[in-house]
Amino acid sequence: MQSERPLSPFPFGAERHNSGMPDPLANQPALSVAELTAQIKGLVEESFPSVWVTGEVSNFARPASGHCYFTLKDQHAQIRAVIWKGSASRMRFDLTDGLEILCHGRLDLYAPRGSYQIVIDQAQPKGVGSLELALRQLKEKLAAEGLFDADRKRPLPSFPRRVGFVTSPTGAAIRDFLEVARRRWSGSQILVIPTRVQGEGAAEEIAAAVRLANQIRPPLDVLVVGRGGGSIEDLWCFNEAAVIRAVAASQIPTVSAVGHEIDVTLCDLAADVRALTPSEAAERVVPSGDEFTSRVRTLSTRLHGAARRAVQVRSERVDGLAQRRPLARPYSLIQDHAARLDELQLAANRSIHRKLEHYRGLLRAAAGRLQSLSPLAVLARGYSITQDGRGQVVRDASRLKPGDRIGIRFATGKTEAIVD
User: Fold this and answer.
1) Domain end marker among 243, 269, 287
2) Which pTM value belongs to this model?
Protein backbone atom coordinates (compact mmCIF):
# COMPACT_ATOMS: atom_id res chain seq x y z
CA MET A 1 0.00 0.00 0.00
CA GLN A 2 1.44 3.38 -1.07
CA SER A 3 1.73 5.92 1.70
CA GLU A 4 0.00 9.27 1.42
CA ARG A 5 2.05 12.24 0.19
CA PRO A 6 2.73 14.68 3.02
CA LEU A 7 1.37 18.23 2.70
CA SER A 8 3.89 20.78 1.49
CA PRO A 9 4.61 23.66 3.83
CA PHE A 10 5.29 25.92 0.81
CA PRO A 11 2.88 27.89 -1.32
CA PHE A 12 1.78 26.38 -4.56
CA GLY A 13 3.99 28.69 -6.62
CA ALA A 14 7.02 27.93 -4.48
CA GLU A 15 6.43 24.26 -4.78
CA ARG A 16 6.31 24.55 -8.55
CA HIS A 17 9.52 26.58 -8.47
CA ASN A 18 11.20 23.96 -6.40
CA SER A 19 9.96 21.30 -8.76
CA GLY A 20 11.59 23.05 -11.68
CA MET A 21 8.56 25.02 -13.10
CA PRO A 22 9.03 28.74 -14.02
CA ASP A 23 8.11 31.41 -11.48
CA PRO A 24 5.35 33.84 -12.80
CA LEU A 25 6.43 36.60 -10.44
CA ALA A 26 9.84 36.65 -12.03
CA ASN A 27 8.47 38.22 -15.27
CA GLN A 28 5.19 39.97 -14.16
CA PRO A 29 4.28 41.41 -10.78
CA ALA A 30 1.01 40.28 -9.09
CA LEU A 31 -2.01 42.68 -9.30
CA SER A 32 -4.25 43.67 -6.46
CA VAL A 33 -7.97 43.19 -6.85
CA ALA A 34 -8.42 46.94 -7.14
CA GLU A 35 -5.74 47.17 -9.82
CA LEU A 36 -7.25 44.30 -11.80
CA THR A 37 -10.73 45.80 -11.48
CA ALA A 38 -9.43 49.17 -12.63
CA GLN A 39 -7.86 47.62 -15.73
CA ILE A 40 -11.08 45.74 -16.55
CA LYS A 41 -13.08 48.92 -15.94
CA GLY A 42 -10.85 50.80 -18.35
CA LEU A 43 -11.19 48.12 -21.03
CA VAL A 44 -14.98 47.91 -20.65
CA GLU A 45 -15.56 51.65 -20.71
CA GLU A 46 -13.13 52.15 -23.58
CA SER A 47 -14.68 49.34 -25.61
CA PHE A 48 -18.32 50.41 -25.00
CA PRO A 49 -18.38 54.24 -24.72
CA SER A 50 -21.78 54.35 -26.41
CA VAL A 51 -24.27 51.57 -26.85
CA TRP A 52 -27.96 51.08 -27.66
CA VAL A 53 -29.66 48.27 -25.74
CA THR A 54 -33.21 47.01 -25.67
CA GLY A 55 -34.66 45.02 -22.79
CA GLU A 56 -37.35 44.74 -20.14
CA VAL A 57 -37.28 46.77 -16.94
CA SER A 58 -37.25 44.68 -13.77
CA ASN A 59 -36.75 45.40 -10.04
CA PHE A 60 -37.15 49.13 -10.61
CA ALA A 61 -36.34 51.39 -7.67
CA ARG A 62 -36.09 55.18 -7.29
CA PRO A 63 -34.93 56.23 -3.81
CA ALA A 64 -35.08 59.75 -2.39
CA SER A 65 -31.86 60.65 -4.20
CA GLY A 66 -33.77 60.71 -7.50
CA HIS A 67 -31.50 58.15 -9.21
CA CYS A 68 -33.16 55.16 -10.91
CA TYR A 69 -31.85 51.63 -10.38
CA PHE A 70 -33.19 48.57 -12.16
CA THR A 71 -32.31 45.44 -14.09
CA LEU A 72 -32.49 45.37 -17.87
CA LYS A 73 -33.15 41.81 -19.02
CA ASP A 74 -34.32 39.57 -21.84
CA GLN A 75 -34.96 35.84 -22.01
CA HIS A 76 -31.30 34.87 -21.79
CA ALA A 77 -29.40 37.49 -19.80
CA GLN A 78 -29.63 40.56 -17.62
CA ILE A 79 -27.57 43.60 -16.74
CA ARG A 80 -27.76 46.15 -14.00
CA ALA A 81 -28.76 49.64 -15.13
CA VAL A 82 -28.75 53.07 -13.57
CA ILE A 83 -30.13 56.45 -14.65
CA TRP A 84 -28.70 59.35 -12.73
CA LYS A 85 -31.05 62.03 -11.41
CA GLY A 86 -30.21 64.59 -14.09
CA SER A 87 -31.05 62.23 -16.94
CA ALA A 88 -34.10 60.85 -15.11
CA SER A 89 -35.58 64.34 -14.68
CA ARG A 90 -35.55 64.83 -18.47
CA MET A 91 -37.57 61.66 -19.12
CA ARG A 92 -41.24 62.42 -19.82
CA PHE A 93 -42.55 58.96 -18.91
CA ASP A 94 -42.26 56.78 -15.83
CA LEU A 95 -40.31 53.55 -15.80
CA THR A 96 -42.21 50.58 -14.42
CA ASP A 97 -41.51 46.88 -14.08
CA GLY A 98 -42.36 44.98 -17.24
CA LEU A 99 -41.88 47.98 -19.55
CA GLU A 100 -39.74 47.20 -22.59
CA ILE A 101 -37.47 50.09 -23.50
CA LEU A 102 -34.82 51.10 -25.97
CA CYS A 103 -32.05 52.91 -24.15
CA HIS A 104 -28.71 54.55 -24.87
CA GLY A 105 -25.76 54.75 -22.52
CA ARG A 106 -22.29 53.52 -21.71
CA LEU A 107 -20.93 50.54 -19.85
CA ASP A 108 -19.44 51.07 -16.45
CA LEU A 109 -17.87 48.71 -13.94
CA TYR A 110 -18.83 49.31 -10.34
CA ALA A 111 -15.62 48.51 -8.47
CA PRO A 112 -17.02 47.98 -4.93
CA ARG A 113 -19.07 45.03 -6.13
CA GLY A 114 -16.96 44.04 -9.10
CA SER A 115 -20.06 44.11 -11.34
CA TYR A 116 -20.66 45.97 -14.53
CA GLN A 117 -23.69 48.07 -15.36
CA ILE A 118 -25.02 50.32 -18.06
CA VAL A 119 -25.35 54.02 -17.28
CA ILE A 120 -28.35 55.21 -19.30
CA ASP A 121 -28.69 58.79 -20.52
CA GLN A 122 -31.62 58.30 -22.94
CA ALA A 123 -34.57 55.93 -22.97
CA GLN A 124 -37.80 55.51 -24.82
CA PRO A 125 -40.53 52.87 -24.71
CA LYS A 126 -40.13 50.25 -27.37
CA GLY A 127 -43.01 50.31 -29.85
CA VAL A 128 -44.48 53.57 -28.48
CA GLY A 129 -43.09 57.07 -28.23
CA SER A 130 -41.95 58.40 -24.89
CA LEU A 131 -44.32 61.36 -25.07
CA GLU A 132 -47.23 59.11 -25.93
CA LEU A 133 -46.46 56.83 -23.01
CA ALA A 134 -45.97 59.76 -20.66
CA LEU A 135 -49.30 61.18 -21.79
CA ARG A 136 -51.01 57.84 -21.24
CA GLN A 137 -49.53 57.41 -17.77
CA LEU A 138 -50.39 60.94 -16.66
CA LYS A 139 -53.91 60.64 -18.06
CA GLU A 140 -54.53 57.45 -16.07
CA LYS A 141 -53.15 59.06 -12.92
CA LEU A 142 -55.24 62.24 -13.18
CA ALA A 143 -58.35 60.32 -14.22
CA ALA A 144 -58.01 58.25 -11.04
CA GLU A 145 -58.11 61.53 -9.10
CA GLY A 146 -61.42 62.42 -10.77
CA LEU A 147 -60.14 65.50 -12.61
CA PHE A 148 -61.79 64.41 -15.87
CA ASP A 149 -65.17 63.36 -14.43
CA ALA A 150 -68.19 64.54 -16.44
CA ASP A 151 -70.13 65.57 -13.32
CA ARG A 152 -67.51 68.26 -12.67
CA LYS A 153 -68.30 70.04 -15.93
CA ARG A 154 -70.09 73.39 -15.67
CA PRO A 155 -72.16 75.16 -18.34
CA LEU A 156 -70.96 78.41 -19.84
CA PRO A 157 -72.98 81.59 -19.22
CA SER A 158 -75.12 82.68 -22.15
CA PHE A 159 -74.05 86.32 -22.08
CA PRO A 160 -70.62 86.71 -20.45
CA ARG A 161 -69.59 90.29 -19.73
CA ARG A 162 -65.94 89.59 -18.88
CA VAL A 163 -63.91 86.93 -20.70
CA GLY A 164 -60.30 86.03 -19.88
CA PHE A 165 -57.87 84.36 -22.30
CA VAL A 166 -54.67 82.74 -21.01
CA THR A 167 -52.37 82.65 -24.05
CA SER A 168 -49.43 84.31 -25.75
CA PRO A 169 -50.32 87.94 -26.60
CA THR A 170 -48.37 87.68 -29.87
CA GLY A 171 -49.77 84.37 -31.11
CA ALA A 172 -52.30 83.75 -33.83
CA ALA A 173 -54.73 82.25 -31.30
CA ILE A 174 -55.63 85.56 -29.66
CA ARG A 175 -55.95 87.31 -33.03
CA ASP A 176 -58.34 84.66 -34.32
CA PHE A 177 -60.31 84.75 -31.08
CA LEU A 178 -60.64 88.54 -31.06
CA GLU A 179 -61.64 88.68 -34.72
CA VAL A 180 -64.46 86.15 -34.29
CA ALA A 181 -65.58 87.67 -30.98
CA ARG A 182 -65.69 91.19 -32.42
CA ARG A 183 -67.77 89.99 -35.35
CA ARG A 184 -70.28 88.13 -33.16
CA TRP A 185 -70.85 90.38 -30.15
CA SER A 186 -69.64 93.72 -28.87
CA GLY A 187 -70.98 93.49 -25.35
CA SER A 188 -68.19 91.35 -23.87
CA GLN A 189 -64.94 92.67 -22.40
CA ILE A 190 -61.99 90.43 -23.27
CA LEU A 191 -58.94 90.40 -21.00
CA VAL A 192 -55.70 88.75 -22.17
CA ILE A 193 -53.58 87.13 -19.43
CA PRO A 194 -50.17 86.82 -21.14
CA THR A 195 -48.03 83.73 -20.76
CA ARG A 196 -45.69 81.52 -22.70
CA VAL A 197 -47.40 78.58 -24.35
CA GLN A 198 -44.36 76.58 -25.45
CA GLY A 199 -40.97 75.57 -24.14
CA GLU A 200 -39.34 74.89 -20.80
CA GLY A 201 -41.24 76.41 -17.88
CA ALA A 202 -44.32 77.26 -19.94
CA ALA A 203 -46.53 74.85 -17.98
CA GLU A 204 -45.76 76.59 -14.70
CA GLU A 205 -46.48 79.99 -16.26
CA ILE A 206 -49.82 78.80 -17.67
CA ALA A 207 -50.85 77.34 -14.29
CA ALA A 208 -49.89 80.60 -12.55
CA ALA A 209 -51.87 82.60 -15.13
CA VAL A 210 -54.98 80.45 -14.51
CA ARG A 211 -54.67 81.02 -10.77
CA LEU A 212 -54.18 84.74 -11.36
CA ALA A 213 -57.31 84.87 -13.53
CA ASN A 214 -59.34 83.50 -10.61
CA GLN A 215 -58.17 86.42 -8.45
CA ILE A 216 -59.16 89.20 -10.86
CA ARG A 217 -61.85 91.57 -9.58
CA PRO A 218 -64.52 92.09 -10.79
CA PRO A 219 -64.48 88.35 -11.46
CA LEU A 220 -64.38 86.89 -14.94
CA ASP A 221 -67.42 85.06 -16.30
CA VAL A 222 -65.47 82.69 -18.58
CA LEU A 223 -61.80 81.73 -18.84
CA VAL A 224 -60.25 80.43 -22.09
CA VAL A 225 -56.92 78.62 -22.07
CA GLY A 226 -55.26 77.86 -25.38
CA ARG A 227 -52.92 78.47 -28.28
CA GLY A 228 -52.64 77.67 -31.97
CA GLY A 229 -51.63 74.36 -33.49
CA GLY A 230 -48.24 72.66 -33.36
CA SER A 231 -46.44 69.41 -32.83
CA ILE A 232 -46.98 67.27 -29.78
CA GLU A 233 -43.78 68.70 -28.35
CA ASP A 234 -45.05 72.25 -28.91
CA LEU A 235 -48.35 71.48 -27.18
CA TRP A 236 -46.81 69.39 -24.41
CA CYS A 237 -47.07 72.09 -21.76
CA PHE A 238 -50.87 71.68 -21.92
CA ASN A 239 -50.37 68.05 -20.87
CA GLU A 240 -48.41 68.91 -17.74
CA ALA A 241 -49.96 68.06 -14.37
CA ALA A 242 -49.54 71.64 -13.11
CA VAL A 243 -51.76 73.01 -15.89
CA ILE A 244 -54.35 70.23 -15.52
CA ARG A 245 -54.69 70.76 -11.78
CA ALA A 246 -54.94 74.55 -12.17
CA VAL A 247 -57.67 74.26 -14.81
CA ALA A 248 -59.59 71.67 -12.78
CA ALA A 249 -59.38 73.87 -9.66
CA SER A 250 -60.55 77.02 -11.46
CA GLN A 251 -63.66 78.61 -9.95
CA ILE A 252 -64.43 80.17 -13.33
CA PRO A 253 -65.97 78.01 -16.09
CA THR A 254 -63.06 77.17 -18.41
CA VAL A 255 -62.76 76.53 -22.13
CA SER A 256 -59.71 74.70 -23.53
CA ALA A 257 -58.78 75.74 -27.06
CA VAL A 258 -55.44 74.10 -27.75
CA GLY A 259 -54.18 73.44 -31.27
CA HIS A 260 -56.28 72.26 -34.17
CA GLU A 261 -59.23 69.89 -34.36
CA ILE A 262 -57.05 66.76 -34.35
CA ASP A 263 -55.05 67.88 -31.30
CA VAL A 264 -56.38 66.57 -27.98
CA THR A 265 -54.56 67.49 -24.77
CA LEU A 266 -55.23 66.66 -21.15
CA CYS A 267 -56.18 70.31 -20.66
CA ASP A 268 -59.12 69.63 -23.02
CA LEU A 269 -60.29 66.82 -20.74
CA ALA A 270 -59.98 68.85 -17.54
CA ALA A 271 -61.75 71.96 -18.85
CA ASP A 272 -65.51 72.41 -18.65
CA VAL A 273 -65.76 72.80 -22.45
CA ARG A 274 -63.36 71.79 -25.21
CA ALA A 275 -63.14 73.95 -28.32
CA LEU A 276 -61.51 72.54 -31.43
CA THR A 277 -59.72 75.82 -32.21
CA PRO A 278 -59.42 79.30 -30.67
CA SER A 279 -61.88 80.54 -33.30
CA GLU A 280 -64.44 77.95 -32.23
CA ALA A 281 -63.79 78.94 -28.62
CA ALA A 282 -64.94 82.46 -29.50
CA GLU A 283 -68.07 81.01 -31.11
CA ARG A 284 -68.80 78.96 -27.99
CA VAL A 285 -68.10 81.73 -25.48
CA VAL A 286 -69.37 84.89 -27.20
CA PRO A 287 -73.03 84.96 -28.28
CA SER A 288 -73.95 85.82 -31.85
CA GLY A 289 -75.59 89.20 -32.23
CA ASP A 290 -77.41 88.13 -35.39
CA GLU A 291 -78.67 84.95 -33.75
CA PHE A 292 -79.72 86.92 -30.68
CA THR A 293 -81.60 89.49 -32.78
CA SER A 294 -83.29 86.73 -34.76
CA ARG A 295 -84.22 84.95 -31.57
CA VAL A 296 -85.66 88.15 -30.09
CA ARG A 297 -87.74 88.66 -33.21
CA THR A 298 -88.97 85.09 -33.08
CA LEU A 299 -89.83 85.36 -29.39
CA SER A 300 -91.54 88.71 -30.01
CA THR A 301 -93.66 87.19 -32.77
CA ARG A 302 -94.54 84.24 -30.60
CA LEU A 303 -95.35 86.53 -27.67
CA HIS A 304 -97.69 88.71 -29.75
CA GLY A 305 -99.36 85.65 -31.23
CA ALA A 306 -99.81 84.11 -27.79
CA ALA A 307 -101.22 87.41 -26.46
CA ARG A 308 -103.71 87.66 -29.33
CA ARG A 309 -104.82 84.09 -28.84
CA ALA A 310 -105.21 84.64 -25.12
CA VAL A 311 -107.28 87.80 -25.66
CA GLN A 312 -109.45 86.00 -28.22
CA VAL A 313 -110.07 83.03 -25.95
CA ARG A 314 -110.98 85.27 -23.02
CA SER A 315 -113.20 87.45 -25.24
CA GLU A 316 -115.09 84.36 -26.38
CA ARG A 317 -115.47 83.28 -22.77
CA VAL A 318 -116.86 86.70 -21.85
CA ASP A 319 -119.32 86.56 -24.75
CA GLY A 320 -120.38 83.09 -23.68
CA LEU A 321 -120.90 84.24 -20.11
CA ALA A 322 -122.89 87.25 -21.28
CA GLN A 323 -125.36 84.92 -23.01
CA ARG A 324 -126.03 82.97 -19.86
CA ARG A 325 -129.26 83.68 -17.92
CA PRO A 326 -127.65 85.19 -14.75
CA LEU A 327 -126.04 87.92 -16.84
CA ALA A 328 -128.64 88.20 -19.63
CA ARG A 329 -131.69 88.36 -17.24
CA PRO A 330 -130.38 88.91 -13.73
CA TYR A 331 -133.80 89.86 -12.25
CA SER A 332 -135.43 86.63 -13.43
CA LEU A 333 -133.16 84.68 -11.13
CA ILE A 334 -134.20 86.91 -8.23
CA GLN A 335 -137.88 86.47 -9.13
CA ASP A 336 -137.46 82.72 -9.31
CA HIS A 337 -135.89 82.68 -5.88
CA ALA A 338 -138.64 84.99 -4.54
CA ALA A 339 -141.34 82.70 -5.88
CA ARG A 340 -139.57 79.74 -4.43
CA LEU A 341 -139.33 81.56 -1.11
CA ASP A 342 -143.08 82.22 -1.14
CA GLU A 343 -143.78 78.57 -1.85
CA LEU A 344 -141.55 77.54 1.00
CA GLN A 345 -143.21 80.06 3.32
CA LEU A 346 -146.72 78.74 2.45
CA ALA A 347 -145.56 75.18 2.89
CA ALA A 348 -144.07 76.12 6.24
CA ASN A 349 -147.28 77.80 7.38
CA ARG A 350 -149.35 74.79 6.38
CA SER A 351 -146.99 72.51 8.17
CA ILE A 352 -147.14 74.68 11.29
CA HIS A 353 -150.96 74.70 11.24
CA ARG A 354 -151.06 70.97 10.84
CA LYS A 355 -148.66 70.54 13.72
CA LEU A 356 -150.70 72.92 15.89
CA GLU A 357 -153.97 71.11 15.14
CA HIS A 358 -152.35 67.84 15.89
CA TYR A 359 -151.01 69.01 19.21
CA ARG A 360 -154.35 70.73 20.03
CA GLY A 361 -156.11 67.39 19.52
CA LEU A 362 -153.59 65.68 21.76
CA LEU A 363 -154.04 68.42 24.35
CA ARG A 364 -157.86 68.14 24.30
CA ALA A 365 -157.66 64.36 24.71
CA ALA A 366 -155.27 64.75 27.60
CA ALA A 367 -157.54 67.43 29.17
CA GLY A 368 -160.55 65.14 28.86
CA ARG A 369 -158.68 62.31 30.54
CA LEU A 370 -157.42 64.69 33.19
CA GLN A 371 -160.93 66.09 33.74
CA SER A 372 -162.36 62.60 34.17
CA LEU A 373 -159.83 61.93 36.88
CA SER A 374 -160.12 65.34 38.57
CA PRO A 375 -161.64 65.30 42.13
CA LEU A 376 -163.66 68.39 41.17
CA ALA A 377 -165.65 66.24 38.77
CA VAL A 378 -166.43 63.87 41.63
CA LEU A 379 -167.55 66.78 43.79
CA ALA A 380 -169.79 67.97 41.02
CA ARG A 381 -171.74 64.79 41.34
CA GLY A 382 -172.68 65.62 44.98
CA TYR A 383 -169.64 64.38 46.85
CA SER A 384 -167.55 66.44 49.25
CA ILE A 385 -164.03 66.26 50.65
CA THR A 386 -163.34 66.49 54.37
CA GLN A 387 -159.93 67.72 55.59
CA ASP A 388 -158.54 67.91 59.12
CA GLY A 389 -156.89 70.93 60.62
CA ARG A 390 -153.61 70.05 58.90
CA GLY A 391 -155.26 69.88 55.48
CA GLN A 392 -155.09 66.13 55.30
CA VAL A 393 -158.01 64.30 53.69
CA VAL A 394 -160.09 62.44 56.30
CA ARG A 395 -161.01 59.03 55.06
CA ASP A 396 -161.86 57.45 58.43
CA ALA A 397 -164.29 59.06 60.90
CA SER A 398 -162.56 57.36 63.85
CA ARG A 399 -159.62 59.71 63.34
CA LEU A 400 -161.73 62.62 64.46
CA LYS A 401 -162.53 63.65 68.06
CA PRO A 402 -165.18 65.89 69.37
CA GLY A 403 -164.10 69.47 69.14
CA ASP A 404 -161.79 68.91 66.08
CA ARG A 405 -162.07 71.61 63.46
CA ILE A 406 -162.56 70.20 59.99
CA GLY A 407 -162.94 71.67 56.51
CA ILE A 408 -165.50 70.48 54.01
CA ARG A 409 -164.97 71.16 50.28
CA PHE A 410 -167.91 71.00 47.90
CA ALA A 411 -168.04 71.24 44.13
CA THR A 412 -168.64 74.92 44.65
CA GLY A 413 -167.14 76.47 47.71
CA LYS A 414 -166.11 75.14 51.11
CA THR A 415 -167.01 75.48 54.76
CA GLU A 416 -165.66 74.67 58.21
CA ALA A 417 -167.27 72.69 61.02
CA ILE A 418 -166.54 71.41 64.56
CA VAL A 419 -166.94 67.75 65.36
CA ASP A 420 -169.63 67.18 68.08
Assistant:
1) 287
2) 0.50
